[in-house]
Every structure is written in C-alpha cells, then in structure tokens.
TrEMBL record, chain A:
<dbReference type="GO" id="GO:0006623">
    <property type="term" value="P:protein targeting to vacuole"/>
</dbReference>
<dbReference type="InterPro" id="IPR004353">
    <property type="entry name" value="Mon1"/>
</dbReference>
<dbReference type="GO" id="GO:0016192">
    <property type="term" value="P:vesicle-mediated transport"/>
</dbReference>
<dbReference type="InterPro" id="IPR043970">
    <property type="entry name" value="FUZ/MON1/HPS1_longin_3"/>
</dbReference>
<dbReference type="InterPro" id="IPR043972">
    <property type="entry name" value="FUZ/MON1/HPS1_longin_1"/>
</dbReference>
<feature type="domain" description="FUZ/MON1/HPS1 second Longin">
    <location>
        <begin position="339"/>
        <end position="432"/>
    </location>
</feature>
<dbReference type="Pfam" id="PF19036">
    <property type="entry name" value="Fuz_longin_1"/>
</dbReference>
<dbReference type="Pfam" id="PF19038">
    <property type="entry name" value="Fuz_longin_3"/>
</dbReference>
<feature type="region of interest" description="Disordered">
    <location>
        <begin position="101"/>
        <end position="171"/>
    </location>
</feature>
Automatic annotation (TrEMBL), chain B:
<dbReference type="Pfam" id="PF19031">
    <property type="entry name" value="Intu_longin_1"/>
</dbReference>
<dbReference type="GO" id="GO:0035658">
    <property type="term" value="C:Mon1-Ccz1 complex"/>
</dbReference>
<dbReference type="InterPro" id="IPR043987">
    <property type="entry name" value="CCZ1/INTU/HSP4_longin_1"/>
</dbReference>
<dbReference type="GO" id="GO:0016192">
    <property type="term" value="P:vesicle-mediated transport"/>
</dbReference>
<feature type="domain" description="CCZ1/INTU/HSP4 first Longin">
    <location>
        <begin position="15"/>
        <end position="125"/>
    </location>
</feature>
<protein>
    <submittedName>
        <fullName>Vacuolar fusion protein</fullName>
    </submittedName>
</protein>
<dbReference type="InterPro" id="IPR013176">
    <property type="entry name" value="Ccz1"/>
</dbReference>
<comment type="similarity">
    <text>Belongs to the CCZ1 family.</text>
</comment>
Length: 614, 477
C-alpha cells in the first residue's frame, strides 16, 4: 500500500510512463476497456453510473493527506491520532524495516523495476527464468503445485512483505501468479493488491468494481466466476470489496473464508467505523490509512498455505505440562481482574495461555488475526508497544488497546484493554507476569516445548493395550520396550506412523482448539506440507457443506493420500495416510489417535479457559 | 435495469445464444443476439444479460486465455456458459429459488447446452455456416428459434422449464444406455451416434409415437407431461418472433423444418417411420426423406428409420450416393424388407425375451450410475428405483458429483493423458453412504441407504458391485 508513493500519479500516467515489460499490454488495456464498455454501454438506462465510479482520472485526487503514517513511526504510546474529519482511525504502530538487509533475498532483476519497487525493499526479485516467491505460490510456468523435488528452494524461510511491486495487470508474470488478492473500495479505488503496485492497478480495480456493481444493480450478488482452472471469488463488505483470483484448486468456501480473514485483518487495523468515511465521501482513498501494513497482509496470506487455524476456526496450544500451563493461567487471571480485558501469552502462533475478564471470550479468528498482526510487525519485537487494535469478532466497531511485549524471541504477552491510557498500568502488569513466569520456569518450559515439538505419528503405539495413565515425556504413548526397536527402524525408513499414518489434526469442538501432529517423513518439504494442507482444506470444505453438512465420515483416496475424516459432536479428526494404506488398518489407527489425544489432552489443550471453571 | 427486471419474466430460466463477432459497434448491439429465451423480454434486458456474459468472457481471458468463463455463481442465479462454436456462446441462467428443487449441477446443465447444439448441427449444420450463408442473421435466428423452442418443450412442466436437477444425479446426458450385448456386436459410440440415439429416444421411441406399446426402460423418454404445454410457448412469444426473429431477415417466410416438433412421426404400413416435417422445406406435397449432417465426416446423409415393435433400426446413406432420391430410397426400403425384416423380427423376439424388463439393471441394496467416458456409454439403476432415495441422499450425491466434476476437469487440464484415479466415500448426515469412484476414464456413483455404518461395509459393497458388473474395474487389486 503505497503511502510512500507519489499520490498524485494517476493510473493512466503510470502505466504509460513505465518501461513496459510486456508487449501485450496494449491488448490487455483494450481488454479492460472492452469489459467496461460491455458492462457499461450495454446497460441502456443503468441508474447507477458505472462510468463515473470507475473513472480512473480521479483515483488519487482526494487522498486526505498522503503522509499520514510515516514509515519511521516505530511505535507510539497512547492511542490514536484522529484521521479524516470524523472517524477515529488510528494509525497502526507498525514500523516496517523496509531495508533490513537480511530480508532482501536478491537484487531486483526485472528491467522494469521502478525506483518505487526498490524503495519498498521489494524482496520479490527473482531469476529471470523462474518467477516465484519463497514459500508462496509459484506461477504456473514454473510447474504444477505438486511438481516439487524434495529439496527445492522453497525450503528457504518465507520472507514477509510485498512481492513483485513492479508488476501490474499489463505484465505477463502478474497475470500468471497463482493467487491474487485484492481489496478495493466500492468506487473502484484499489486499497490492497498482493502482487503489483496498487496505483498502477487502478484500471483493473475499476473493472472488478464494474463487475460487482453490474450484478448488484441487477438485484443479485456475484459470488464466484469459474474459468478453466481459475476461480474469481468476490466478497462484498459494505463499501469494501474483496476479490481473490486463484488457480490453486482450493474450494470456493475456503477462498471465501480467506477473504473474510483478510477483511477481518483490515478491521483489526482500522475498525469497521472506516465505513463512515465512505458514507461521507464515496471516493475516499483508504490506502494511506493502511500504509506500511503490507507485511501484515502478506503474512496472513502466507498463513493460508500452512496454518490450519485459517480454515478450522480454532487455535492451537503449545504442548505443556498441565501444571505449567496452570501456573501461567493463574498469573494472567490475576491481571485480568485489574481491568485487563484479555491477557494472552503466545509462542509464535501457539497459545500458552489466555484469560478473558468476566464473560469476555475470544474468537479463534481474533486470536489468529491478532497474533498475525503482532508477529508480522517488526516493531513489536524491538520494544514494548501500546497499539490500538480492533477484534473484529469481539466488537468490529471499537478499538481496544493492546500492550505487547516479547518475553523472549518467540514468546510474547498481549494485554488488551478498553482504556487508551492504561499503558503504565499494563506495563506494571507485564512486569509482574514476567517475574512469575520466570520464577515458575514457565518460560524455560515453553522454550523446551518448542524444541521438543508436539505429537509425532511415529510415537503412536501399535499396541492398543491400555496405557499407564500418566503420559510419557514428549507426549509419546507409553509402550513396551520391545516396541521401540520396531519404531526406531520405522522412523528410519521414513514411512511415518503405524498403518502408513503420515499426519493428523484433531479439533475439539467445545474448546475451539486443535492439535496436529508434527510433520514427519515423508511430508518433509514445505511444498509437500502445503499440498497436504490444501488437501485437508478441501476435505474440510467437503465435510462442512453448507446445505447438506456436516457429513459424518469421509474416506478419500487419490494418487497422493488416503484421507480420513470423522466428525462427531465433540471432535473432528482429519488424518492423512500413505495412498496405499489399508482401509481397515487406517480406521483402527484413527481410533487409536483419538484415544491418544484424550490421554494427553491436559497437555495439548488449554482446559478451563473460562476463569470461572477453576 | 439489469437482472432484476430480467427476473420479472414469467420464467426463471433464461437462455441465450450470441456471436462475439457481431454487433461490436455502438448502435448495432442487437446484431449479436441470435437467440433469447424468453423471447418477449425487452431488448435492453436481453442486451444486459449478454453484456455481462461478454464482459466476463473478456475478463477471464486475462488470466485464463485457454478457457474463458464457464460459470458465474451469484446468490440468486447460476449462469452456465458454453462456447458452442468459436465465438458463438450459449449461456443459460437458472434461478436458485428458495423452492427446494432448484439444486443443480453445473456440468449437467452444460450438457443440456451441448446436446441442443449437437442436435441442431445434425439437422441444420453449424451456426457459423448459417450466418455466413445469410449475414443479416435472419436465417440462423429463425432456425435456432424454432429448433430450440421445440427442444425446450420437452422440459416444460406447466409453464416452467424444469431442467435436470439433483434428482437426475444418477443419470448422464450425452451417453448411450446400452443393452448388455457382446462387445463385438456393440457399435462404437461417437458424437453422431449419441445424437441419433438422443433423437431416436426423444421422437422415435414407442411412447413418443404413441403406439401404446410398452417400451424398454433403457430408452430415455421425452417428458410426456409436456405435450400439452407446447402450444403456449409459441403463443407467448409470437409477436416478438415476427418482429425480430423473422422480419429482420427481410424474408418473412423461411421454410424451416422442425425435426424436434412433437408427435410428427408415425409408423407407415411398411414399418418405416414417416413424417411430414420435411414436406414444407421441399415445397412439394410428397413427404421427403429427411437428411442430417454427420459431424465426423461432415457428410449429408439420408435418415431412414424402420421400426418393429421395440426395435428401432436407423439407416443412413450419403445423399451423393443416390442419383434419384425417390427411386433410391424406395429401393433401399424394399431391400430391407426383403432381406432383413425376418431377421429383425427374430432379433426383436430374442431381445424381448431376454430382456429383464424395467428392473433388468436393478442391483438390490444400492442405487448406482456407471459411466464409461471413453465409450460414451452408461448404465444406471432404473429411474423408478432412484425415486425411492431421500432428497438428502440425492442432494449429497449431487454435491459430490460437482466435486468430482471439478477434479476431473482439473486433472484433464493438468495432464490430458493421465488417468485420474480417486475414491470418495461419504457418510452423510442422514446416514446414507454416498460414493464416487473414478478410474481409467470410468466413473461409478453409488448411494447406499439404510446401510451398515462402517466404512468397510460401504467399500465391500462397491467391491462386490465392481467384481460382478465391471470386471473388477473398481476393485482394489
């Protein structure tokens, strides 16, 4: 979102002035014009003038003040500046380290990369032959999703931030990206695009708007357009339009859910009261308000391909001994009594403990969006912060204030309050909490758990005999000594757990939590993990069919996996096996996984999250 | 304006054909419309429907040049696209009413579009050829109008079109339902075969000929209840037809054969079917022999049909092979009667005796559809048995088939030669098992109600079915 770009540049100019890497661009421009012509001219007496609203000339004319959020706005204490004339939209306290050298993967090699892209520290530079992003969606030319080799470069750590900012809809490479996300306003102004420069996409954005409003003027609402492998998914949220264009084969329901989360992320930063800006001025330009939040959105979009929380609507906990988590919960509970609405202790995307004041409860999607916001913003890591945020599922209209402090490199404490001047109080709370956590060794336990990892399919006992009650270290099932040798050998040939079990996810319906096994052989590479994740996502959508679901059981076999899903009133189990796995054995194994989860539920779940239950 | 006014039409279904090469200049937009149902909608509404379709075809080509828009799903409607010929598009819009029967499978609707276009080609040749013949469009419009309205009359129930919905999930349009006969005796099913089969079932089947004979259930019958309603369709839109579909061509009196008109075939004394459908076209009083176009060879052939009780025999011979039509055809007929009629009687007897009746293909305990996509043949539980299934099961199957359709088309575009192999077994909320198997170009769909709850029971049922009826094709080993 180009708060740092020249806001006076019109889309037409920028398209013409830039060196054009794509000889077909005129063709595409004509295409876009043609579409709008088709949509606009055909409607003989359209009451709602599409032409006017899609006019590109004025797109950036009325940005209130382009330099609303300076980049070096590392953090701010004490709430929001007032933006616009009415709505209290507070600048987000994100200091993005644009030029951090370790973030730059490579030098931009595209001949067309503008100074703009360079300024933004675009990490999207690539070799000419292979257009892709680290860990993200490759474009189709590189190969199919599943044409990976075990040690592909996709193992490189994912780097947050804008990709390919030099592209626009005239670029062949842009059109071949596997998954686009767009946010635009109802007047067709671009707000966010995953790839490319929003300013240069004004014309494209206007086309999306024209499609949506054309159907709306006819009294209907467009949800989806399918063309070959491509799906275009639309989501309208008042004056905000969200669009995904994808050829990843994900189900409509999943892509729509992802758009919902992106909208939620935007609300988390701005609150829904931003709608009032559009009521006052339909052509309101929102981009400055989101300036610098590229990393937040790109990291959320990245999580769509690895974090099951994004489709399960559940959060996951860091495995800890029951007593350890109790100790953490107790101190969080203490501060919750002193005017803190929510106290959340997390390690990366996993919850250590969370406590809500009185009857306040936290939706798993809010946990996901909040932790994504905190983790993707570099400034939170450097020192304690106090930032206005909104929890879209809790109250989309109001800001809360989040005190955020990293206790170690991965573990962070978030204290949420309604009071904008509670910084010093929350700071005191944090000091108290930190002391208790250190004293009771919670932090070192957390670090140890991070090293140890969670449940491993190799540790699933083959022997269904009753277990010894208390669980063994590392969540393994206690087993007879004779088992270990077999297991040792199995682990080495890399066939996962018993009966060809490769992975599983267990979601507790009452707790809003899930637990998943660690990835193990043969699901080694990030590509393989992403493919499995997408298979689960498809299975989830199939089981939770809106009209007809949820179904009770599903068995699904293709060339990649045997997948089993089991939905009951209490839990959902998703399990992946070797495609040649025996059906009867797979079923037995699923039963054993459920038993195993129940055996260790004290450690893998946060029980009694409500303060009244203990 | 737009779709809201569209829905004020008496019918919730819209169906249009337009040519992207026509009407690209301002003021000439009407030129692109080749067919629109219902025809009495205002042109502005017709153009708005086509404008949206055109806009999305152009838009989707930006990302997917190889396959443009196939479907638009809106909250209230599904828009199904089919590019019948280069730049000639058919779009069908169906309403997702709250009425519970309106649950569709997009691919099944697209097959309706394919079918009507294929049949049209068989009798009239391609749309593009007719446009080239008369660029004003009058000729093609009048042909399309009469042909498609006659075709749609089969789907009319009362005044509403009833298109294939979830209740037809165990049927596959565009396949031939074959009697179990030796492979060497079975003909190779090509597009032309499917067209002829479809046409024969629609208009030649004993019930369509109203002969009172019982018919074999493998024949897909025309919708009997629709006959009464046929008149009202033409009556509704007569005025528009005159204004646009006829007069715009300049010549208000095209002689158009209507091969899909109902109740036009009768059985002559010699056993050959006769119709006066083609009389008008020739302008003579004598009934002429109809001709059709073969798609594969682009050859024009005479269509000659002989029927004995339940057996229908279709003879095709090239138009160019006969110097004198009347003489040549009567010679052929004579030869059939002299040399083949006795054998035909015997074959019919044999088939009738060996035929197990309506429920010949019933397999107890399950409802199924077996499709051989390579050979374009299918076999299914008898319709009377399928109707015993609950709505929940059929809706679940409809949804599962939609999922499989997507997987299939994806697999096809990824690697056209590879054989997708997959198996999905779902235990639905109502405890029915809904199963799809897909292997080596063959598909099996199955619904088990009141079945045991274990997955193994469901797979055993499929396994047994596969061993017994599919040479173990869907068996695991």
């Amino acid at each position: 979102m180009g708060s740092d770009s020249d806001s006076s540049t019109s889309a037409d100019d920028s398209a013409a002035d830039n060196a054009d890497p794509n000889p077909n661009s005129t063709l595409i421009d004509q295409n876009l014009d043609a579409i709008e012509d088709q949509l606009a001219s055909i409607v003989l007496a359209q009451p709602n003038d599409i032409e006017d609203s899609s006019s590109e000339q004025e797109v950036f004319k009325d940005a209130p003040n382009g330099s609303l959020l300076d980049e070096d706005n590392q953090q701010e204490i004490g709430g929001g500046e007032i933006v616009g004339d009415e709505v209290e939209v507070v600048s987000s306290s994100i200091g993005v380290v644009w030029r951090s050298s370790e973030l730059e993967v490579d030098q931009p090699s595209s001949p067309s990369s503008s100074g703009y892209a360079g300024e933004r520290g675009s990490s999207g530079a690539t070799s000419a032959s292979e257009i892709e992003e680290a860990g993200g969606d490759r474009i189709r030319e590189v190969g199919r999703d599943d044409s990976f080799d075990g040690v592909s470069d996709s193992q490189a750590p994912w780097v947050p931030g804008k990709r390919h900012a030099d592209e626009d809809d005239a670029s062949v490479s842009w059109r071949k990206r596997k998954k686009h996300f767009f946010i635009l306003s109802h007047s067709g102004k671009p707000i966010y695009s995953r790839y490319g420069d929003e300013h240069k996409l004004a014309g494209f954005s206007a086309t999306l708007q024209a499609i949506i409003s054309f159907v709306e003027n006819g009294g209907d609402h467009v949800k989806l357009v399918r063309a070959g492998k491509h799906q275009v998914v639309f989501l309208v949220k008042g004056p905000i339009y969200l669009v995904c264009i994808s050829c990843t084969g994900e189900p409509y329901e999943s892509l729509r859910g992802q758009l919902e989360l992106i909208y939620g992320q935007m609300i988390l930063i701005l609150t829904k009261s931003v709608n009032r800006c559009f009521e006052k001025n339909p052509k309101f330009d929102m981009t400055p308000l989101l300036g610098g939040t590229d990393v937040v959105f790109s990291s959320l979009i990245h999580s769509f391909s690895w974090n099951p929380a994004t489709f399960l609507h559940a959060y996951t906990c860091l495995p800890l001994a029951y007593a350890t988590r109790q100790a953490a919960g107790a101190i969080l509970h203490d501060v919750a009594d002193s005017g803190v609405l929510f106290a959340i202790l997390m390690c990366k995307h996993k919850v250590v403990s969370l406590v809500g004041a009185q009857k306040a409860s936290l939706h798993p999607d809010d946990v996901l969006l909040l932790s994504n916001f905190v983790m993707s913003s570099e400034s939170f890591r450097t020192s304690e912060s106090f930032s206005p945020i909104c929890l879209p599922r809790y109250n989309p209209m109001a800001f809360l204030y989040a005190y955020v402090h990293y206790l170690d490199v991965d573990t962070y404490l978030m204290l949420l309050t309604t009071s904008s001047d509670a910084f010093y109080h929350l700071k005191d709370c944090r000091i108290r909490i930190e002391m208790v956590l250190l004293k009771s060794n919670v932090l070192s336990e957390v670090q140890r758990s991070m090293l140890d990892g969670g449940m491993r399919v190799e540790d699933l006992s083959v022997d269904p005999s009753p277990r010894s009650g208390s669980s063994s270290p590392h969540l393994g099932q206690s087993r007879l000594a004779t088992d270990s040798l077999d297991r040792f050998q199995e682990a080495f040939v890399g066939i996962g757990g018993p009966a060809g079990l490769w992975h599983f996810i267990y979601r507790s319906i009452y707790l809003d939590q899930y637990a998943s096994s660690e990835f193990s052989s043969p699901i080694n590479s990030l590509q393989q993990q992403k493919r499995l994740y997408r298979a689960y996502q498809k299975l989830y959508a199939s089981m939770h069919d809106k009209g007809n679901g949820p179904h009770k059981t599903q068995f699904r076999r293709d060339e990649n996996y045997v997948l089993l899903c089991w939905v009951t009133q209490d839990f959902e189990l998703y399990a992946a096996f070797d495609p040649l796995a025996d059906k009867a054995l797979a079923i037995k194994t699923c039963n054993r996984v459920c038993q195993w989860v129940k055996d260790v539920e004290n450690e893998i779940f946060l029980l009694g999250a409500s303060p009244f239950s203990w | 304006m737009g779709l809201s006014s569209v829905t004020t039409g008496s019918d919730a279904t819209k169906f249009c054909i337009f040519d992207l090469r026509r009407g690209q200049h301002e003021g000439e937009e009407l030129d692109k419309i080749l067919f629109f149902y219902p025809a009495d909608l205002p042109f502005s509404t017709q153009l708005s429907v086509i404008g949206l379709s055109e806009g999305l075809i152009t838009f989707t080509r930006i990302f997917s040049p190889e396959a443009a828009c196939e479907v638009i799903e809106a909250e209230g409607h599904s828009h199904v696209f089919y590019e019948a010929e280069p730049d000639v598009w058919m779009v069908m819009i169906v309403e997702k009413s709250k009425e519970s029967e309106a649950i569709w499978r997009i691919d099944a609707l697209r097959r309706v579009l394919k079918e009507v276009h294929s049949l049209f080609m068989m009798f009239h040749g391609s749309i593009r050829a007719l446009l080239d013949k008369e660029p004003s469009g009058g000729l093609v419009r009048s042909h399309l109008y009469t042909f498609i309205m006659d075709y749609l009359s089969d789907f009319l129930v009362g005044k509403k079109l009833q298109l294939p919905n979830f209740r037809d999930s165990l049927k596959e349009r565009g396949t031939v339902q074959m009697l179990t006969i030796g492979r060497e005796a079975a003909i190779e099913v090509q597009e032309d075969t499917i067209n002829l089969f479809t046409y024969a079932v629609l208009r030649f089947s004993p019930r369509a000929l109203s002969s009172g004979l019982s018919s074999w259930s493998y024949l897909r019958k025309g919708n009997v209840s629709s006959h009464a309603a046929t008149g009202s369709v033409s009556a509704n839109s007569g005025a528009v037809l005159d204004q646009f579909y006829r007069s715009s061509g300049g010549d208000p009196s095209y002689h158009i054969a209507r091969p899909l008109q109902q109740d036009k075939w009768t059985k002559g004394k010699d056993g050959f079917l006769v119709s006066d459908i083609w009389k008008a076209e020739a302008g003579s009083s004598a009934a002429t022999t109809p001709t059709i176009w073969l798609q594969k060879t682009e050859e024009k052939v005479f269509l000659c049909t002989f029927q004995h009780r339940n057996l229908t025999l279709i003879l095709l011979f090239p138009v160019i092979s006969l110097l004198n039509e009347e003489q040549g055809i009567s010679l052929v007929k004579q030869q059939v009667l002299e040399n083949a009629s006795l054998k035909i009687v015997k074959v019919e007897e044999k088939l009738s005796k060996g035929w197990g009746g309506e429920n010949a293909y019933h397999v107890s305990g399950c409802r199924y559809l077996l499709v051989d996509g390579d050979r374009n043949v299918s076999r299914a539980s008898p319709p009377t048995k399928v109707t015993t299934l609950t709505k929940e099961s059929l809706v679940a199957l409809n949804k599962l088939r939609e999922e499989v359709d997507l997987e299939k088309s994806r697999a096809k575009s990824d690697s056209p030669d590879s054989d997708k192999d997959m198996e999905i077994c779902i235990r639905a909320k109502n405890n029915a098992w809904v199963i799809a198997r897909f292997t080596r170009g063959k598909e099996l769909y199955m619904v088990l109600e009141k079945a045991n709850e274990t997955l193994l029971y469901a797979s055993d049922t499929v396994e047994n079915f596969s061993n017994r009826y599919c040479n173990g094709l869907f068996s695991l080993d």
